[in-house]
């Protein structure tokens, strides 16, 4: 059933009218909102009617709120037909175009004259107007601007405009003005038959394309009735070529749009409808919509025909910057079921650059007073940089959601469809991020720090549309404990896209450097788009509606993800599984969930750590490498040496961090503490700016719902024994080094008891103790040479007292009768001639005292030794 209100991807609709006839004819968008242009023959939206029919314009913001409306005209007939914007100035420039039978800022030249208005984007007030024409009928049907701010109006005339010769009947014309409203030139082209113009567009190279239909031989022999034509001019008005295509039936052309590919190749799209098989495409019956893609040299690339058994008329087309085009119009059939809809409905169809139909949408109305008057038409369409699609047209009926009321005959109608979630609309997207040194926020809202060095999977899909993003993390400025993201790599459709700090340009696509001007958008081979948002930021638009904002700062990269809710339950990686729960976000590739709080070993050093699990393999890498480089070139499995928190800052570092982050107005705990840490530790104040910007963005995206901290509390002790300097909190001090030379630890001990005493602990109810246990020599567990036992106690209460084995004998860890080495993180990795094993152990216990004494002990040994490393104590 055809919907009669918002839902699915239809985000909002606005209906405005008078007691008479009102139509929306065209729509244009900027980053400030949308401008809908048309005409009305009564007082429109509280404005004053000026004649029999007037120009109208309505401005809405992106949320659908009306900002203002205006009515312009003479005491005669005035028809607003087109609208265009130019965003290269502040304020933006807005232009209306149409035709008049009156004197619209100048004397009327004949029957109908062409009109061009520039209006203020803030109020709609007229900045200037231009009127021109011949002694006959001159009809402006479309207007556009180029990248330099020049304005082009196009239409058809029965006379001779600005001295141009008329070939007979209606000829097409194209007129150029500069941004000050000064006329530059006019070109007129025709045959002895009729040419009608319906669209005009410019490309990135300042060429102009005029589209319409001709009854003559304008660009080739006529196929039998009205044919498609497409004419290309350069910015000086020189005609480059004219192309003509058609069938034996009437082929009506209603719009043209351009796009630019990554290699700067221009594509041109023309849309309309036909009553026959067009260019060999299947004919469904009645009138079918057609879309034709041309190259910049006029070569036809492909054509598509879409329809039902009824009439399906495409009347406008828009490009989103290269990867997709959107068409709108009207149909009297349900396009999903191919059954009669009893009246004309609006439709919207999305095609990708290869001509694949991606999305079909349809909207109808109701009319309780007169069920025969429920006709809608989509007359204009535009797409903004945030994948919102706007359709302007009219309706005779009313809608059910929201409930609207028709005020007379035809009312102006404006629709907004969402093609993907909107990163700046609260609650629409799943939000995740990585920033600073680096701080990660999962899609479910868990904030934690990750200081690994190497190349890691931030996020990857396990089903649905493929999504993979990898991060390269390197030490910050020679640090042993702090890393930052310096490169990101992702797969967008079939294209491998990389962002690399310190290269110019910083972007590569499939290994080739890509330079992109601020504000420009390019399609990517295989789907998706890339937009340069500003001097330091890029937006990646994935084919599956996923979004990624990449910001290249001075020395580090930030990543901000926005994914549709349909992604829930389909992801994994360092940024979590996006299932609405934070307690299982920190999980391994195997699916094993790590209980929070995570220890240093669980984050970095264990073979079952987050770092080990999500470190990419060579065959997984999406990165570009230099000669003799691969992922291991950037890998350090021993990084970081120790965890870092605000508590580790010196008083001077803390003061700098606090002052800078307060100055930047970073407010919330999830960002403030990390801001203080970054600034204090590095001395780089730019980290505070990044924190403030990201905090604001996340607040907007989450609607005020900020990420929660990783479960757990304060780290009160950590030691990794990288230095020989004695640590006096230990009852016995020995500094050990493995024969392999890469492991430093506390030890080696024999049948000793070694104590760690901690005092003045903050208020708490729980203690988490974790450490690496190193067992060297012929530990025989429960064998004949044993038992060889090791244990740990807290305040005299045993946490573990069991046997371990490095031989063939069984052991009692983790349970009696276990095979030797069961539960070990590594075996024979340290170079001891008689064997070694390494266990990562973690204990959680109830505890409230301000003092804690840990006893580590062994007994029954006969020359075997043990040691400790990465000893960590957390309280909460």
UniProtKB/TrEMBL annotation:
Name the UniProt record assigns to this protein: VWFD domain-containing protein
InterPro entries reported for this sequence: Motility_Chemotaxis_Reg (IPR052918), Quinoprotein_ADH-like_sf (IPR011047), SBBP_repeat (IPR010620), VWF_type-D (IPR001846)
SMART domains per UniProt: VWD
Domain VWFD span(s) in chain numbering: 430-622
One Pfam family this sequence matches: SBBP
Membrane-spanning residues: none
Protein species of origin: Stigmatella aurantiaca (strain DW4/3-1)
């Amino acid at each position: 059933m055809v919907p009669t209100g918002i839902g699915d991807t239809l985000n909002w609709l606005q209906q405005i009218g008078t007691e008479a006839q009102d139509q929306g004819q065209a729509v244009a968008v900027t980053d400030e909102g949308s401008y809908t242009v048309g005409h009305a023959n009564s007082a429109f939206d509280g404005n004053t009617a000026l004649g029999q029919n007037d120009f109208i314009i309505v401005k809405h913001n992106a949320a659908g709120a009306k900002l203002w409306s205006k009515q312009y005209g003479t005491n005669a007939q005035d028809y607003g037909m087109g609208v265009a914007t130019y965003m290269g100035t502040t304020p933006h420039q807005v232009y209306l175009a149409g035709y008049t039978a009156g004197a619209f800022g100048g004397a009327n030249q004949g029957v109908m004259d062409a009109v061009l208005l520039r209006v203020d984007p803030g109020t709609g007030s007229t900045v200037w107007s231009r009127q021109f024409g011949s002694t006959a009928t001159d009809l402006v049907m479309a207007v556009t601007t180029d990248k330099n701010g020049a304005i082009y109006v196009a239409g058809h005339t029965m006379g001779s405009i600005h001295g141009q010769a008329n070939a007979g009947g209606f000829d097409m014309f194209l007129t150029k003005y500069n941004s000050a409203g000064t006329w530059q030139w006019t070109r007129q082209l025709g045959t002895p038959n009729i040419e009608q113009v319906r669209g005009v567009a410019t490309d990135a190279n300042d060429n102009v394309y005029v589209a319409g239909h001709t009854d003559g031989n304008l660009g080739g022999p006529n196929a039998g009735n009205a044919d498609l034509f497409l004419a290309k001019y350069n910015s000086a008005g020189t005609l480059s070529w004219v192309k003509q295509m058609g069938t034996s039936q009437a082929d009506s052309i209603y719009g043209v749009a351009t796009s630019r590919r990554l290699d700067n190749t221009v594509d041109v799209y023309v849309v309309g409808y036909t009553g026959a098989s067009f260019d060999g495409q299947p004919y469904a019956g009645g009138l079918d919509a057609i879309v034709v893609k041309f190259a910049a040299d006029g070569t036809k690339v492909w054509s598509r025909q879409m329809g039902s058994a009824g009439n399906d008329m495409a009347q406008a087309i828009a490009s989103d910057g290269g990867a997709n085009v959107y068409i709108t119009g009207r149909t009297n059939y349900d396009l999903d079921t191919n059954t009669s809809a009893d009246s004309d409905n609006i439709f919207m169809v999305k095609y990708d650059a290869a001509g694949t139909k991606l999305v079909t949408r349809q909207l109808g109305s109701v009319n309780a007073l007169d069920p025969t008057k429920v006709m809608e038409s989509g007359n204009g369409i535009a797409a903004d940089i945030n994948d919102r699609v706007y359709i302007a047209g009219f309706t005779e009926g009313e809608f059910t959601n929201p409930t609207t009321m028709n005020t007379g005959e035809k009312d102006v109608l404006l629709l907004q469809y969402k093609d993907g979630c909107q990163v700046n609309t609260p609650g629409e997207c799943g939000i995740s991020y990585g920033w600073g040194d680096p701080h990660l926020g999962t899609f479910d809202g868990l904030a934690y720090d990750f200081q690994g060095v190497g190349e890691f999977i931030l996020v990857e899909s396990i089903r649905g549309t493929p999504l993979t993003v990898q991060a390269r993390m390197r030490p910050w400025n020679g640090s042993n404990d702090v890393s930052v993201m310096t490169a990101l790599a992702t797969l967008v459709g079939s294209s491998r896209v990389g962002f690399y700090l310190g290269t110019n340009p910083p972007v590569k696509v499939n290994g080739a450097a890509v330079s992109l001007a601020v504000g420009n958008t390019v399609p990517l081979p295989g789907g998706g788009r890339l937009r340069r948002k500003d001097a330091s930021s890029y937006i990646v638009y994935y084919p599956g509606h996923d979004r990624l904002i990449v910001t290249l700062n001075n020395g580090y990269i930030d990543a901000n993800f926005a994914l549709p809710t349909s992604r829930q339950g389909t992801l994994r990686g360092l940024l979590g599984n996006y299932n609405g729960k934070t307690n299982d976000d920190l999980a391994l590739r195997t699916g094993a969930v790590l209980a929070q709080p995570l220890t240093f070993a669980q984050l970095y050093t264990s073979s079952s750590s987050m770092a080990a699990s999500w470190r990419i393999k060579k065959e997984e890498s999406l990165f570009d490498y230099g000669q003799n480089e691969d992922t291991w070139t950037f890998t350090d499995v021993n990084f970081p040496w120790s965890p870092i928190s605000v508590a580790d800052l010196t008083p001077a570092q803390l003061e700098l961090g606090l002052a800078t982050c307060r100055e930047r107005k970073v407010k919330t705990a999830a960002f403030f503490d990390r801001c203080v840490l970054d600034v204090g530790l590095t001395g780089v104040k730019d980290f505070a700016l990044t924190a403030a910007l990201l905090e604001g963005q996340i607040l907007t995206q989450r609607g005020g719902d900020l990420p929660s901290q990783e479960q757990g509390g304060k780290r009160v002790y950590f030691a990794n024994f990288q230095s020989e300097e004695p640590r006096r909190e230990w009852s016995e001090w020995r500094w050990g080094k493995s024969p392999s030379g890469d492991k430093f630890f506390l030890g080696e001990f024999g049948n000793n008891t070694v104590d760690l005493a901690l005092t003045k602990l903050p208020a708490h109810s729980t203690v988490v103790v974790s450490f690496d246990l190193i067992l060297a020599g012929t530990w025989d567990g429960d064998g004949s040479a044993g038992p060889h036992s090791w244990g740990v106690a807290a305040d005299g209460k045993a946490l573990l007292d069991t046997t371990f084995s490095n031989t063939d004998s069984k052991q009692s860890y983790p349970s009696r009768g276990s095979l030797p080495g069961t539960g070990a993180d590594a075996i024979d990795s340290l170079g001891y001639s008689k064997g070694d094993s390494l266990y990562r152990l973690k204990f959680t216990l109830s505890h409230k005292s301000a003092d804690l004494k840990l006893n580590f002990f062994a007994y029954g040994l006969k020359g075997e030794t043990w040691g400790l490393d990465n000893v960590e104590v957390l309280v909460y």
